Write a sequence for this structure.
């Protein structure tokens, strides 16, 4: 059975991490750059974790909330230095509206676009446990499903049956600007081979000038779109126009390949498009011609 | 802001797909191999989608459920040939327990491991819409959050603010057996460059004998574990033993690299481990030696 790999947008979402030891440490660098509102609950804090809190290590506050938290800050939002309590499942609410409002929607009496303020609702978006006690872990998992619904996402470290998802192995290429994030997962079957493949991808593609490539592809796309729409023959429908344009760009960028997009001469390439669009041709130059004549 | 990439385990989970046109078609090959219990609701069905239903195309049943569905079958579980209705949000329940049970758990009176039958609870695990009507799409999104809680995962095609996650671009290497799944995402910034990179990864690594590599790495790991535990010196703690073993295997497999693990001579490599473990040495042979002496 395969997994469904998804890229979650978590800015401002509440996430609960129970535990603050070595395993929890591996979760934090994946979570904080998403801008999520992370709460950590644990009686003992790994010494290397303090850099992720905007509170000094020698501060002995038991319950700490970062009043100046923002998604860009890359810091933990809340720290509770104590054991987990059942009521932590609803620490920020249960994410549900009034059951009367829900019923009105189901009856067709309430339009949730117009007459319900979703910004009031909150609750955990995801719950992760990284503690060495399997019974407490399972209680958190089962309790969360009981109170928040079967669909709340949970991950109990080291207990695959209690993991709605796995983290996989990650590489980020083109750091800064507009990176490409890559996840590799063997669904637990071969973590070592997955790590080797991850290293190889990082080695081969880690130095690609992704920012420049993305910028050039963006320019090409915008100019090709403008030209094609301004000069669209009356015989061509809108879907046909879009189809032609997409196919042309795909053929062209496939020739430049992942290693040469950043060197593209956008002006010359746009001129080529103009000529070919006049005949609605898709007979592109071969790769060598692209490399010889359409790079800077 | 980065995304959190996760590999979801969906076997037997209810997933709702509203719409059955070209965009919906692109979702189905990602969903069915996970073994999820997929329900499709749409008045019109794309002609190429019929192969995913275990019902003949000329069947004019409005509501169809596959009585013989199983996760391995790779087919849609349910088809409703009609417009979406608000009550479809709770078609399989809301995933929640009795609110009295939930309250008892929060009070510490109910142990959800011992005294609550989670198998009774159901509901959508995820809701995807792929319909051209943005108002109905938003109503589904807002209604789902209202009734099922803010944490229910929704994706409204072509409407990024109403997407809790993106699908990204996927490659599966080593199909059959134990594959490695890869997702690439630029978080919407550069789909064309992401596609180029995906093609390049597929071109370069698509023919790797991953099954063989995984099998050999599995053998190596099992034998190294056995030898190290049977011959563990009294001075070495369990965590120290695990650390040594992991570091030794990492160094060794890094030398074989992604391209040569399948050719590893496991017997000779295990003998090397035995010799090095006697001295707790981590001074591994260099890559060339590994390539010359430890391949089959």
């Amino acid at each position: 059975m395969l997994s469904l790999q998804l890229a979650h947008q978590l800015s401002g979402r509440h996430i609960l991490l129970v535990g603050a030891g070595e395993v929890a440490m591996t979760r934090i660098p994946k979570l904080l750059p998403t801008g999520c509102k992370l709460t950590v609950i644990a009686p003992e804090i790994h010494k290397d974790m303090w850099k992720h809190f905007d509170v000094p290590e020698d501060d002995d506050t038991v319950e700490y909330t970062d009043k100046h938290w923002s998604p860009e800050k890359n810091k933990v939002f809340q720290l509770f230095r104590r054991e987990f309590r059942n009521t932590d499942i609803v620490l920020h609410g249960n994410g549900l509206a009034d059951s009367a409002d829900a019923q009105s929607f189901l009856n067709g009496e309430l339009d949730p676009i117009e007459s319900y303020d979703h910004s009031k609702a909150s609750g955990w978006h995801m719950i992760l446990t990284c503690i060495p006690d399997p019974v407490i872990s399972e209680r958190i998992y089962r309790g969360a499903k009981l109170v928040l619904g079967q669909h709340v996402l949970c991950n109990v470290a080291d207990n695959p049956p209690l993991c709605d998802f796995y983290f996989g192995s990650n590489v980020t290429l083109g750091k800064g600007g507009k990176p490409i994030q890559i996840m590799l997962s063997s669904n637990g079957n071969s973590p070592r081979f997955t790590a080797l493949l991850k290293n190889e991808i990082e080695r081969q593609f880690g130095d690609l000038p992704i920012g420049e490539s993305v910028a050039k592809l963006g320019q090409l796309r915008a100019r090709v779109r403008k030209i094609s729409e301004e000069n669209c023959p009356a015989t061509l429908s809108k879907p046909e126009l879009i189809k032609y344009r997409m196919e042309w760009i795909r053929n062209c960028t496939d020739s430049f390949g992942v290693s040469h997009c950043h060197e593209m001469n956008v002006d010359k390439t746009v001129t080529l498009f103009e000529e070919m669009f006049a005949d609605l041709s898709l007979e592109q130059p071969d790769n060598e011609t692209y490399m010889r004549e359409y790079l800077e």
Observations:
- The radius of gyration of chain A is 25 Å.
- The mean pLDDT of chain A is 93.
- Chain A touches chain B through 105 residues (CB under 8 Å).
- DSSP finds eight helices and ten strands in chain A.
